[in-house]
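Quick check before the chapter quiz. The format below is the same one you will see on the exam, so make sure you can read both the input and the output lines.
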Amino acid sequence: MTADNQVRVGLAKGDDALIDLTAAGVESITSILESTDPKQYLTGLGEQDLPEVARDDVTLLSPIEVQEVWAAGVTYLRSKDARMEESDFSATAYDRVYDAPRPEIFFKSLPEKVVACGEPVGIRADAKWNVPEPELVLMMNSRGDIAGYAVGNDMSSRDIEGENLLYLPQAKVYHRSCAVGPWVTVGASEEEARQWEISLKIERGGEVMFEGSVSVNQIKRSFSELAEFMNRSQVFPFGSALLTGTGIVPGDDFTLEEGDQISIHISGIGCLINSVVRV
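Here is the expected output.
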């Protein structure tokens, strides 16, 4: 969004500038993802003589426009172990789903509720154990094809989920519980994306409270398998976004506090930064 509050679509040019694609008639990110070859389409636009704007002169909105956001769980071994540790009641279920033919896939957020880079994510006022979950996001078009990737944060209240497995929607779906950004990277194959690294840093009052990293290649299921299950018996006329699970879990003695800053970096995409508020 520009300084005069105009919403425009931009193409990153290096670290400091954006090419104004709206000047070429591009009205949405969704239209790019719906194209036959988004990378080729953007390459052609980038070769046109279009105006540029400094990165510091705009506010990045979430790349989620009209897409439903869903999430896959227990796709990393560390995630399985962490969710088994939350509760003896739920341990058997999480152990089984990690090795099951069918993945765990659940609804996460309506598009209008997704938090952008630079905006605050939320921790529930009635929860005592809250954590971020840094995740690679598969951006899919209406045909179910993976058209791009983004950085996601699947905020979670671990104590609520651990109390009873049936409380998962309350632990996962609430105000400001989902952040996606800072933009969409297109053109990378799954083989390339699996070389990326996801890192998480949580700061409190200028002090680093937690750091961790994991390779995208640690995701057990293939992207095509997750996409296929996501689109089974489903219709997404505007496409969809799927968070692919987390392999970074802070220790059991850590919980987020209001004012914390969460930085999630994926090497092939960029960094999603959000502060924390209680909701």
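If your answer matched, good. The mean pLDDT is 94.
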